[in-house]
Amino acid sequence: MGQQIDILAIGEPMVEFNENRTGTETVYRLGHGGDTSNTIIAAARQGARTAYFTHMGDDAFGHQFIDLWDKEGVARDHVVLRSDARTGIYFVTHGVDGHAFSYYRAGSAASLVTPKDIPEGLVESAHVLHVSGISQAISNTACDMVFEAIGRAKRAGRTVSYDTNLRLRLWPLERARAVIHSAVAMSDIALPGLDDAEQLTGLKSPEAICDFYLGLGVKIVALTLGKHGTMVAVKGERRLIPAQVVNAIDATGAGDTFDGAFLAEWLRVGDPFTAATYANAAAALSTQGYGAVAPIPTRDMVEAFIKG
Question: Whole-model pTM?
Answer without folding.
Answer: 0.94
